Please model this.
Amino acid sequence: MPVFDLTGRVAVVTGGNGGIGLGMAKGLAAAGANVVVAARNAGKAETALAELGGRGVFIAFDAADENSCRTTMAQAAERFGRLDILVNNAGTSIRKPPETYTAAEWHAVLDTNLTGAFLCSQAAHSVMKRTGGGKIINIGSMFAVFGSGYAAPYAASKGALVQLTKSLAVAWAGDNIQVNAVLPGWIDTELTRDARQQVAGLHERVLARTPAGRWGIPEDLAGVAVFLASAASDFVTGAAIPVDGGFAAMG
Model:
């Protein structure tokens, strides 16, 4: 359908070289967008680019570095002449009891998951406003809704990211920039495979709580990415959309 067509659009996906980011990048590329995979691991990014059908390029990026956040958006806009879509997906987590975190560990998670998304959005805003508008998609988590006994900084960062999404949506609606969040449930990625190694019984609890009866896969996020990046969502802003197989609906 033309309303979902992204031909000629330019998207930056932070952390787009694997997991949810790559799943979304593949959806955007399939809809016609040129995709900038912004990530730290160049070797992993080369493998990801091979899955984007020739519609992807790589820019080295570190979400915890302010200069990197700003220069990556500028480089993408300079390379393609525009920037239409930003997916703030880069994230990290440190799993341990909350009383044992150091301040440095707390800041490492918050700087990547929250501050990096804010700085990238700031940098993207000026380009999008100049070219008539754009779409910003923030990747939250079910831990924006539920607490986590073993990932307090991660949950705090994702809850704050939803509130940041709403605030930017309100601030930038007049610039024709829609800002929304996606709240993935339990998706089978490198990050959650590590979690299953570190948290006893997690796999069984996820299956028992998820009505769909399975873990999600990164490709499950492709459709919502295309929707939120396209004209189909021009009157949708400030939303937080679960993609969780019914996990949150279980109560």
Remarks:
- The chain has a mean pLDDT of 95.
- The CA atoms of residues 212 and 245 lie 5 Å apart.
- DSSP finds eight helices and seven strands in the chain.
- The helical segments are 19-30, 42-49, 66-80, 103-130, 152-172, 190-198, 202-209, 222-229.
